[in-house]
TrEMBL record:
Nucleotide-binding listed as a keyword: yes
Domain spans labelled Cobalamin adenosyltransferase-like: 2-163
Name of the protein: Corrinoid adenosyltransferase
Enzyme class: transferase
Length: 177
């Protein structure tokens, strides 16, 4: 069954917790929703990445890790390892060696894929803020590895956006201020 009706009153329960009902508008469901929104959007971006297998693979790996964060926040015994963060850093470092150095801020766009990755980056930053807010309210412990992964995630998506433009031969456009 795809629905239970248990949340019709605006409350929900988290697994692994004391099964106390909480408001769907409270910090944890808000963070879980932001992570889910990001994950769903990354699925769309992955489809639009067509022949860019490196980008598709990186996005799929991120999607897998977002499920770990969601499970962790909902009370499951799931966690990140330092190697997960190092894997993201390695991808970003490899991309930085391939593309021209950053000389200024750049205007989003260039290619459709780059623009979509920039939107994903902003969704990742929002999800990160929501997860940090949960930790600051002491509703749930957010491990340092999770915080670090979310912080690196926006860098990864930015690097992938720049890579998408580079692979398409599209120069970045800088704002004229």
């Amino acid at each position: 069954m795809l629905y239970t009706g248990k949340g019709d009153s605006g409350t929900t329960k988290l697994f692994g917790c004391d099964q106390q009902k909480i408001s769907k508008s409270s910090e944890i469901p808000e963070a879980l929703g932001a992570l889910d929104e990001l994950n769903a959007f990354l699925g769309y971006v992955k489809v639009r990445a067509a022949g860019e297998s490196r980008i598709k693979e990186a996005l799929h790996n991120v999607q897998e890790k977002l499920f770990v964060i969601q499970a962790e926040m909902a009370g499951a015994d799931k966690h990140f390892a330092a190697s997960d963060i190092e894997a993201v850093e390695k991808i970003v470092n490899e991309i930085e060696k391939e593309i021209p150095p950053i000389t200024s801020f750049s205007i989003s766009g260039g290619t459709e894929l780059s623009a979509l990755l920039d939107v994903a980056r902003t969704l990742a930053r929002r999800a990160e803020r929501r997860v940090i807010a949960v930790g600051e309210t002491n509703l749930c412990i957010i491990p340092d590895t999770t915080r670090s992964y979310l912080n690196r995630l926006s860098s990864l998506l930015f690097a992938l956006a720049r890579l998408a433009n580079y692979l398409a031969g599209v120069a970045e456009e800088n704002p004229k201020y």
